[in-house]
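Checked the freezer inventory, then went back to the computational side. Two predictions to log before the end of the day. The first one is the construct we discussed on Monday; recording sequence and tokens without edits.
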Amino acid sequence: MRKKILVSLLLIISSLLLFISFNTNLASADLTDSTDLAVLKDAPKGIGINKYFSNSAPKVYDKKDIYDTNSAQIVDNTGANSDSGNIISLANSNNTYGSMWSNDKTFDINKEQTISAWMYFGSGDGESDINSEGIAFVLQNDDNGVAALGAGLEGLGVYGYDASEVTLVSGTNAKQSYIKNTAVQNSVALEFDTEKNNFYDTSNKPINNNGKSFPSLYTYYSLNGYDTQLGTATSNLVNLGFPSDARYGAGGSYGHIALTYPGLADSYQPADLTANSTMKNQFVPFDTGYDLVHIKPTAAYLINDTDSSGNPIYWHHVTIKWIPAESGSTTAKLEYSYNDKSTDGSDNNNTTSTNFQRINDTIDVDTTKLNTTDGKVRWGFTAANGSSTSVATKLVAFDSIPELLYGDADASITDNTLNKTITSDSTDKKVAGGDSLSLNYDLNYIRGNENWKDIAAQIKIPDNVTVTPDANGNVAYITYNDANKTTEAISSSELVDGSLKHTLAKTIGNSSGATGTSATIKISATANQVNSDTNVGTKPATFTGSNNIATTNSPAFTIMAPKKYSLKLDNTGSSNLNLLYKADNSALNLVTDLTYSDNHSFGDDTTGTNIIYQITAGDKTYTAGATATDDDYNQSIDLKSLIDNDTDFWNIFTENSTQTVTIKAIDQANGLVSNTVTYIVDTKPNKSLSMTVSKNLNFKDINLGDTTEYLKRNSDFDLSVTSLREPWQLNVSTNGLYLNGKTLDSNLALVYRKTADSNYAAIGSTPTMIDEDTTSHETSSTEDIADDWTNNSGLLLKQLGASNAGKYTGTLTWTVSDSVSN
């Protein structure tokens, strides 16, 4: 008896040891398959990821869980394991599966996030299993952390294991709870499924990942039916809390894309295998299989492809964007764009053709499925391969990841001659041969934890465009958006074989050491002369940093052949214009006459021709738009209204200045620029009013007993008013005369007499009108008022009584004011 117990214990220990050894299975072998190596050699650059990702052997759920290895590893372009590797190999031979996760919970679901990645699935040639099973992008809050891993085969490394056991006399169906528990918990997956695991497929039979053929007694099998489409009725799924776009299974001949909740029990719906004779015969002794609920499934060509020109497509780019739930909501959005780029960085806008088709979609996500209190989760990719010995390795390379940063690039072309900018969304994309162009590339740091650094720009110059160096031999300049607008020159030596290659000397970002959060590269170029209208296609530009890669494309445009007619601009009035400085309701009207040569017409009153007038005044240029019609188009442009800022306008047209204003007309649609018309603008004072008056006024001395009533002035007195477009009135007042601080109002009084025949008017504290002019003079006019005064007119001093001896003083206050509105 003791011997039996000992044997039993040894068996238990052996079993335990074996179980533990299975849990340490983590692949690290170099890739050697010739097909995979060829694909790796031509893989997109990808950023280094070794320090941001890790994985572990999975923690298996129980002894019947056969998915106890993890084949995911980081490799370089030679297929070798490398600390500087830039590619994740998730499943690299038949029946393998793997997961690779962010080291920490770096994905914050409360913030916008972007993942830009390349994926390789396989060829799909021959049997369909060559490209199976697929890849999944996953967010997870599983307690197993980097050891989280689901089942292989149809499980894609993220779903649960539908473990159905063949026994001696019957089959034991999998349980929904078991499938749920063997999946990656608290997770959301966006699957790129290359194999349609379908109960109705006559070739489909239960599969054992360890290679045991069906049926083998006391062995667990996957029934391989997660993608089975069980009709279109979804009311039961809606009742279970799924959205209305949830479906049983998914279609797609060579793949589909869908959102799933791997750790949710209701995601695995039972299917009656006895309802169909084919299924019943295929899956004996099992009577129940499980179908996976797919949310918004979309058929997609996930395998090797060819573009419209017949070029092979091995790597498929996807941009995944996470849009957080609004405040108070638990519904976030996951946007994805599949096949949005070619490996050279050019955009793919083909959304209809089967060749290299782009798929864009947005799916609502229930964030409660992640079961996170702080919004932080892990993110990563899982994958699985099918049983074919020719199955392709599942590979992923990254342009950007949330741990680092997200930066993008955009491109435009400015036609400096025609004064317009062309983007990919522009409706007018025409330039003329010989036009001066600027090829613009904007780099934008959007968000992240690191600055975007070591940015190597590789820009392909559009066809039929000649890059034009400046006097210093530079073909482009970079302007950084920092406080100093730092610039950096790019030499013509960096333009080789139609591509401009330059590594930016500065970093951009929002952390210390960055030179602003954006930079613009502006390349000077000239549109080539062409004999007929020539369409110029897009050209890619790639900006490869050590921690982020962004691509964009120059917009397509058309170079127009020279027109046989020209555009002529005349000024219909005088080229010399007068402007009154700061006059009320002032205007600076530039009157023009625009015509084509050769009796060419602008069009009828309905269509016309769009014209841009380019006006230069001071050191600034302004534009005004108009629609020209008929054979001759007259246009009056009020430059003051165009500037629409009094301060800016009068800073150019200062008082008593002469300025040159030039204007030319541009027909952007036909690529024509008129001659330049020049105006000379004299800015004259608007109105002015000034006065000249002597500082002192002395009267005749008198002796005691002198009874002269009116005392004459003892000196000449200057009094004049100068006005320009300003009627006026002149007044005077006084506080009287004083002797030693004592008033003499009862002894002496100042009076005014306009002429010798006029009455005398006493001058006191109330202003007395001396003179006025109601005329608004268009030229400066001076009236010398005191010039006509005599000994008996003008200002005089009247004796009222005997005065004490002394020197009397007083103050006169003169006021000239605008008296009549003009």
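The second is the one RB wanted added to the comparison set:
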Amino acid sequence: MDNLNYGIIGNCRSAALISKEGSIDWCCLPQFDSTSIFAKLLDEQKGGSFEIHPKGDYTIEQEYYRNTAILITRFTDGDNIFELHDFMPRHHKMHGKYMAQPEIIRYVKYVSGAPKFTVKYDPKLEYGLGATKHFVKEDFIASLTHKLKYDTLFLYTSFDKERVLGGEEISLEEDGYFLIRYNEKILMPTTDKMGLELERTKVYWLDWVAKTPDYKKFKEEIVRSAITLKMLTYDKTGAVLAAATTSLPETIGEVRNWDYRFCWIRDASMVIKVVSELGHKNSAKRYLQFIIDLMPDKDEKLQIMYGINKEKTLTEKTLDHFDGYKGSKPVRVGNAAYKQRQNDIYGILMDVIYEQLRNFSNDIENVEELWSITKGIVWIVGKHWKEPDKGIWEFRGDDKHFTFSKVLCWVALDRAIKVAQMFGKTRKLERWTALEQEIKEDIHENAWNSDINAFVQCYGSRHLDASVLLMEPYGFIHARDPKYVNTVKAIEDGLSNDGLLYRYKNEDDFGLPSSSFTICTFWFINALFKIGEEEKALEQFERLLGYSNHLGLFSEDIDFKTKRLLGNFPQAYSHLALIECAINFSKKQKDEQILESIK
């Protein structure tokens, strides 16, 4: 079965996807949302790739160097063995800064025998919209395009450049390297220098992982997911990407193909909350600064999403020359959803502000600005919470009174009240508490459907929606409240399909969804755990982990029938929910061990 059998490498500036066979099939330089240099993922012929083909009958295996973002692809035919160590350099410099250049290093490690391989080096710049020409120079291979826009790329290598570009056979007798760079180098690279970059990058990731708490259960899954989330954060501004790709379809051959290389306030805030729980407060601080910079005016309404460099206009267009992943068109860049109104983002953001103040109160600058944002959020929620919106799933049809949006409006007030109490600002509490109660009563009255004995997708509806499972984690309702327990049971009956969950089953703008949104299954597992069905939750969690790819990575969706991964990849949402589930199971085991030792 075809699957998204890719590894991701990255350095918090950009990322690349490398296939199970060692081919770079997706990369945008100099940053995540730039035009692609390799996009075979979206078009086998016109996308461009960087492939290594061993000569002979080789077995290929792939794994990450433990606790790092360095991907090792091992080629062996028994006697002749070599490895590709792929990474994007990232390491410490002086004064707490990081070295993270727009470049990929492919360190070719000689292991044994006399391996031979050919290279297909075929970058296609600017999404392959114009021809890319290659020139062998004294120090590098230069690739350039200028039909639509001038752009260049440089390849440095220890191997014969003519043979590399010509796809001729190369004999490997010692370690070598390929260095793909967006900018020309001033100092010439050498194999030793590239080996040093590899070691420095290894140390950076090992240091980063060492700050993560030591969980008893699912430690490897937590660490791999945490590294993946880290790779999806953009250092320069603190933005967090939803995923590293565009237009990987939710269903093969359909049109639900979106560009996810942007920062959704909801996804990013949820990621930051989890990353802070893992002890990485610098990411949280940078993200809070990103938000502060986006809200210069007290009356400025927050968009649901922004560009990674704080762009507010994300015009959507299609790349019609690309065939799309497995023929799934259109290929989109930009995302028109930035214009939508989703009232839940204020609660999501307020929750993350509260969590950061609670966890790192002595270490957070800008408290005055955060208090200003808190007051502004309450003002906006007070003014707009009764209005319909597009909801968490970004329906492109009519606005409705979505339950999840209303619950998160309540969360905004609940967390704002807690922040006010932390700051000793009691003057507003009476008015804010009254508004919080009004929203809560409104939800209980209008979102509960007594016919089906559950909270529903939107006011007056009979449709179920997985997002209402978050009522409990956000503190709106207690896990053992009969209303919540009944809602979990109703969702299991109505939305579960062979252990995987639909987001919802009512038709949307594109018909009935035919794949499972991965995060929803994690939410459901968490809900089962919270209502006391812990064994069942654990069993489902372990089964769901089995649907990841060969490196433990998840995309946005899973096909109900084949269990293949679909949608943009790797998906921050899926990995943050995996971590939340794993932490719950791990804490449970720790509590049980403590009880045992007391006995």
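For RB: The chain has a mean pLDDT of 93. The two ends are 50 Å apart (CA to CA). Let me know if you want it refolded.
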